[in-house]
Amino acid sequence: MQVWRIPAFGIDKLEHIDAPEPKLGAGEVSVKVRAVSLNYRDLLVTLGHYNPKMALPRIPASDGAGEVIAVGEGVTQVKPGERVAGIFMQNWLEGAATAQKQRGALGGDIDGMLVEYVVLRESGVVPVSDHLSWEEAATLPCAGVTAWNAVVHAGKIKTGDTVVIQGTGGVSIFALQFAKSLGARVLGTSSSDEKLHRASKLGLDAGVNYKQTPDWAKWVLEQTNGEGADLVVEVGGAGTFAQSLKSVRVGGTVAQIGVLTHTSEPLNVAPILHKQVHIQGIYVGSRAHFLEMNRATSQLKLKPIVDEVFAFDQTREALRRMESGAHFGKLVIRVA
Predict the structure, then answer these.
(1) How many CA atoms lie within 13 A of 168 on its CB side?
(2) What are phi and psi of 263, to 5 degrees?
């Protein structure tokens, strides 16, 4: 089978090789991968910035969807021919996260999905809705579940609430879609007026260009009559965290997800205390979160936003596109 793997860190170091198909064991399922979607994490893994001590070689990419072609002895919940996606953390099936459950992340702790065939435990896959294409289904495991966890579980968003999203990458666009489906008002930031315009077509109520308005927290306060947002989906990291604290309401939530930016300025903890802010780190979610999100997306017939689809042999180009930050929504690699 065809495989992409990281023998040494760097996009140019990626290898496209032939490898034996994985053997199927008891309790496992064999999946013919149809599409893989990229996350910023996959870029960091490839560059060696995510875990410089990661054992190599490693097959990258946590997110993929495909067709079950065979099942091992004892498998009862999955049948050949079913459409499935792998779950991000193969050990986090339900309940609260623990150190043990957070081990076994695809494309990091263990080999990922950038292959023609993959073998996973029966519990390591979930069914995906028939209303989704392979490319759309492949976007769900990381970005989709992360946004669902942030909006529904951390933010507990309801009709009339205000949500702030940062940028227009995969997690932020999913958060926009989920928040709007719950009846929330959504405000957004971007460095591109064109991207804000595209987001408005998906329901973004108002947007601001942070290049032109660096103190965008003041804008959020103006938009909310001085109250602040109920939830900030914080994907920027250290460089945007201070603005997020300023823009959230008293008793509101900052769902900390991303590490895209950095800052040399010290963290001022006073706003956390004075505003009694809930800060919730979001590290994707469990299999149960995935199933819950799937029920909602199926009922809503929600369609993930795929910006561009690359051929399997264009994986390096796809990662460079991710590195450029020019995409809107998700980047996907068609495998077969």
Answers:
(1) 28
(2) -150, 150
Report phi then psi at 75, rounded to 5: -75, 125
Q: Residue 321: how many CB atoms within 10 A of its CB?
A: 18
What are the structure tokens assigned to 30, written together?
């064999």
DSSP label at residue 89: B
CA distance 2 to 141: 22
Cross-strand partners of 5: 15
Answer whether 0.85 is exceeded by the pTM: yes
Task: Quote the CA–CA distance of 253 and 276 in Å, as a whole number.
Answer: 9
| Residue 286 CB contacts under 8 Å (≥ 6 apart), including other chains | 87, 89, 92, 93, 94, 95, 97, 101
Cα(292)–Cα(270) distance, integer angstroms: 36
Phi/psi for 6 (5° steps) reads -100, 105
Look up tokens 């957004």; give the residue.
188
Rounded CA separation 137/290 (Å): 12
Contacts of 81-84 with C-beta under 8 Å, sequence gap 24+, read 82/127, 83/127, 83/128, 83/130, 83/134, 83/137, 84/29, 84/31, 84/125, 84/126, 84/127, 84/128
Cβ pair 328, 168 in contact under 8 A? yes
pLDDT, one tens digit per residue, over 11-36 is: 999 999 999 999 999 999 999 999 99
At 76, the amino acid letter reads: T
Look up residue 151 and give its DSSP letter: I
